[in-house]
Amino acid sequence: MIFEAFRKFRNETPDAPAFLVSSGDRAVPISWRQFTDDIAAVVWAIGRYCPGATIGILGENSYQWIVAHAACLLSGSIAVPLDVNLTADEICERLEFVGAKTIAHSSLYGEKVSEVARRMPGVLRVGFGSLAADIFMQGGHTKEAFALWEGSGPARTGADGSPAVATIVFTSGTTTVPRGAELTLAAIESFAATGSKALPMGAGERSLMLLPLHHIFGISSTYLMLVNGVALGVCPDFRRIYDAVNRFRVDFAFLVPALADILAAKCEQHGVKGLKWILVGGAPISPRTDSRLAALGIRVVTGYGLTETAALYSLAPLGERTRNGSAGKVSHLPEVETKVSEGGELMVRGPNVMLGYFRAPEKTAEVLSSDGWFRTGDIGRIDADGFVWITGRAKRTIVLSSGKKIAPEELEGRLLSCPGIAEVVVTGELESRTITAEIYAEMPEADVRAAVAAVNSELPLYKRIKRVVVRDTPFPRTSSGKIRLPVAPPPPGKQRPPRRHALPLPPVPRGWWLALALLGVVAVALVVIAVCFIVFLGM
Question: Which of 421, 474, 473 is nearest to 449 (CA)?
């Protein structure tokens, strides 16, 4: 589907813009002819220098990033998007873990990659726009490379005919250690097919490549827009979202809640023209931000998915009546099945589901059944019309000593609807199960506590917030914009036993070493003298 669409635009509208990049105060187009030629050139270079390789990609959002990723998909290589916030040590660990011997990167992270190369001398590194990359591109602009677009497409299957891994995308790690989800080309195409049906977009419209490309939502939404011929304005800095919306004159955008908040504030201050709708995924949007955008004439639709499902479980159809508060409607694709388990957990099966976690069969078995059903870990329901309602995350559910269960997301949603409250995390302490709300707000602490009291007055006693912590600063976030949730310590009885000598011994000053050595010599001499004296008396 993806590369068939690329061939179509290359043949039918070769001069139409596929991308728009900033140059000063202008938006410079990159045509479909150039885009597909550049993909073919990189495919040629991969085939010549590292065929079938696992390739790490590191860099801010850029045209070159998506060219590299698309070339990996088309060539049969495995693309591994790398979070730009990783340290050199962490990049080395990740490359070694997935067995990558090649890394493509932007100049902005050249110094970090140089450090990686010093620690991994065997790694082949290619910088976007570097001399080596230019040589590759020039060599790849051959008839052989161009003929790629006349072929039948990539054969992304294994030796046994089963789907092959196309990309390994690491989970965001908000509450757990990031794991590498093995996704196929069909998984990304499932998102594109579902989105094409649910959302109005087409050739000639404009949007942004704004979401981080090392996360699956950013990757899948980018390919969705490309297969529909949407021209993508490249925005490497999410803080410039308002400028990008106006500069590229975008019609719609894919965002996470944190970016929707920023956009709403900017649009209220300066106004906005042309932006018709946004799709928000990754986490629920706050009712307050939804209302602010609606007042500006910007329609908000929602989507839901996980890295393991290529960001797809449900999408809100923009052409029909939606359900406020829902996570959208289940995929219309017949091969994508959804259900709710007896325990209330949302489950999905289909081509959008990962093959497994890379080199983690035990963790894979915990979430993926032998017949292909993936456990999302989210508690919810699906109504008669196919709309999905999420009530909480199974791992975050607070279980009181009485056995009653509380979804912290419900309480967070109520608090976020209060004017002035910007961020909230609700937790329950393990032993006392005290329901605690940690809040960052744009108002005095007394007003925060009054807002919590007002929310409590509408709740049954067992759900009420017992403890309030007011923060001075916003919560730390992951690179995808999600709040990094606190990791709960192990429950009582499962704590690791304390290590012996847990506290380090104090360092011994340098001058003492000589004194200790001399004392040792004197002690040995005294022992020898004593032994000799005893022997002499015995004689």
Answer: 421
- Please tell me the distance from the alpha carbon of residue 22 to that of residue 27, in angstroms, as a whole number: 5
Instruction: Give the Cα separation of 208 and 230 in Å (integer).
Output: 9
List all residues 6 or more positions away from 350 whose beta carbon is below 8 Å from its beta carbon.
Answer: 190, 331, 333, 335, 336, 337, 372
| CA–CA dist 315, 195 (Å, integer) | 7
Going by their DSSP bridges, the two strands 231-234 and 405-406 should be labelled as: unpaired
Q: In the structure, how many helices (H) and strands (E) does the chain have?
A: 16, 25
pTM assigned to the model: 0.79
Q: How many CA atoms lie within 13 A of 504 on its CB side?
A: 3
Question: What does the alpha-carbon distance between residue 38 and residue 49 come to, in Å, rounded to a whole number?
Answer: 16
Find the farthest-apart pair of alpha carbons in the chain and give their distance in angstroms, rounded. 114
pLDDT score at 89: 94
DSSP H helices in 124-205: 131-140, 143-146, 185-198
Kindly state the tokens that stand for 364.
Answer: 């894979």
pLDDT in tens, 54-74: 999 999 999 999 999 999 999
pLDDT one-digit tens code per residue, 98-131: 999 999 999 999 999 999 999 999 999 999 877 7
> Residue for token digits 């004593």?
530
Euclidean distance between CA atoms 291 and 286, whole angstroms? 9
CA distance 273 to 277: 12
CA Rg value for the chain: 28
Angle at 422 between CA 420 and CA 423, to 5 degrees: 140
Q: Residue 345 corresponds to which tokens in the numbers above?
A: 């957990």
Q: 210 phi and psi, to 5 degrees?
A: -115, -40
Neighbours of 193 (CB within 10 A): 22
Q: Can you tell me the distance from the alpha carbon of 332 to that of 360, in angstroms, rounded to the nearest whole number? A: 31
Residue type present at position 383 = D
pLDDT band at 174 (very low <50, low <70, confident <90, very high): low
Distance CA 454, CA 411 (A): 12
As a whole number of angstroms, the distance between CA 162 and CA 362 comes to: 21
DSSP line for 231-242: EEEE-S-GGGHH
